[in-house]
Amino acid sequence: MSKLTPTPGQTVGPFYGYALPYAKDRELLPPATPGSIRLQGTVYDGAGHTVPDAILEIWQADAEGKVPQHPGSLVRDGYTFTGFGRCAVGNTGVFTFTTVNPGPTAPGAAPFISVVVFARGLMNRLFTRVYLPENEDALANDPLLSALDPERRRTLIARREADGGLRWDIRLQGGDETVFLDFEAGSEGEGTAP
């Protein structure tokens, strides 16, 4: 029997940018809907340069803290909040979602949005979270955040803008690298599965 030689791995991009976007993918609800906010930020590489060809996906609870169970996340009907969105960053590395402030999924829990990052040079997608900045008690009691050093913790907390929107930047490497989660049991990652 001949011995097979393993082939090298492939990165997750940037070729995916042509197949994954879909109409209104970044609008979890239409802009100007009562209660809608803008979640925006910039994706940076380890040298501090913007990444112009990343794609982000978000999943979140609605404003009441209920996780949507509606099918059809890829179809935007203008009425149904599915809790899922996808956004290709622009040439300047900027992403923007139209969504709502997620509510806590349990009493006293810190509201957050789950985020997945696909970008050139990554051998696998990256998982992280962005937390709302307001409820400091809930943030202090969150199992993930409380397990992190305060400097690392701040990479997961958005800033509230004057218009009510959220600003949160993603740094793929470097001194201010965003905390990324490892969901594989027994592997060595920065975070743990919630």
Task: Give me some keywords for this one.
24% strand; 194 residues; single chain; 4-stranded antiparallel sheet; mainly beta; disordered C terminus; 5-stranded mixed sheet
Class from helix and strand fractions: mainly beta
User: Runs with pLDDT <50, length 5+?
Assistant: 187-194
Structure annotation, total helices:
3
| General form | globular
Largest sheet geometry: 5 strands, mixed
Q: What is the CA-atom radius of gyration, in angstroms? A: 17 Å
N-to-C order of helices and strands:
EEEEEEHHHEEE
Q: Percent of residues in helical segments?
A: under 10%
Overview of the structural elements:
This protein is mainly β. It contains 3 helices and 9 strands, in the order ββββββαααβββ. Strands 1, 4, 7, 8 and 9 form a 5-stranded mixed β-sheet that branches. A 4-stranded antiparallel β-sheet has the order 3-2-5-6, with no helix packed on it. The radius of gyration is 17 Å and the shape is globular. The N and C termini lie far apart (45 Å). The C terminus is likely disordered.
In short, what is this structure?
Helices cover 7% and strands 24% of the residues.
